[in-house]
Specification:
The protein is an alpha/beta fold and 227 residues long. It has ten helices and seven strands. α7 packs antiparallel against α8. The structure holds S-adenosylmethionine. InterPro entries: Methyltransf_25 (IPR041698), SAM-dependent_MTases_sf (IPR029063).
Length: 227
């Protein structure tokens, strides 16, 4: 799906399939309950930026959960890929979610900030320099907390994903690209070895990594700004 010349119908189906796949494998409900919901309020609006939103299902789910809990959350979801932007803006709108075609670097250049910053399945896509930039961007963009969620590489994760998505292999990129993602993803100690100080690697069952940074400390934000 990273190939700009890939089949657009298969790409659209891939974005569509991300929703049930993320619902089963990504554990975002737990991330929302444990890490994000404690920052939300009935009275004060909280802003959240989702970086690399792809098919948009994770930011839409976060906005729906907050609304169901009666909490005020304004979600901005960005992805520079014009095909992703075309897909998400062709879907029915979700109240509380704004999709923008932009990269994390664009937002830093514009001086924007958000209370909370998240991403899903982004870290393993990035080479070391781009990962360093993304982490610096997210620490500058966040006023309170960053949570980057990704796959934890593992044989069982690979086998289970292969078995579950094999039926979709011919109609989308979910099978081949998903397995490549599992192969490229980190084990906890590998991720801990490549991130700068201040980032905390946590695991979540099954086979999930969370890279978390609390930026409420002014020193942490200042360090990130100069990283
Ligand atoms: C594998 S997709 C993940 C999509 C979605 N988060 C999900 O879980 O289904 C990664 C996305 O990140 C986007 N991306 C990569 N670097 C980015 C950056 N610096 N800022 C915003 N988006 C970025 C890519 O265009 C791609 O669509």
């Amino acid at each position: 799906m990273d190939d700009p010349a890939c089949d657009p119908a298969a790409l659209d189906r891939t974005y569509r399939y991300f929703r049930p796949i993320n619902a089963v494998v990504s554990g975002w409900r737990r991330v929302y309950v444990r890490h994000l919901r404690p920052h939300l309020s009935v009275h004060e609006p909280t802003t959240l930026l989702d970086i690399g939103s792809g098919g948009g299902d994770v930011p839409r789910a976060l906005a729906r959960w907050a609304a169901r809990d009666g909490l005020r959350l304004a979600v901005t979801a960005v992805d520079p890929d014009e095909r992703a932007h075309r897909y998400v803006t062709a879907q029915p709108a979700t109240p509380g979610v704004e999709f923008r075609q932009a990269s994390s670097g664009d937002l830093v250049r514009d001086g924007e900030t958000f209370d909370l910053v998240t991403s899903n399945h982004l870290l393993h896509h990035l080479d070391p320099d781009t990962l360093a930039s993304l982490l610096a961007h997210s620490a500058v963009l966040a006023r309170r907390l960053v949570v980057h969620a990704d796959i934890e590489r593992g044989r069982l994760a690979y086998a289970a994903y292969a078995a579950a998505t094999w039926p979709l292999a011919r109609r989308s990129f979910v099978y081949d690209d998903g397995l490549a993602s599992v192969r490229r993803s980190y084990r906890p100690h590998e991720l801990a070895a490549v991130v700068p100080p201040g980032w905390d690697v946590r695991t979540q069952l099954p086979y999930r990594l969370l890279l978390v940074r609390d930026v409420t400390d002014a020193t942490a934000r200042e360090e990130a700004r100069h990283a």
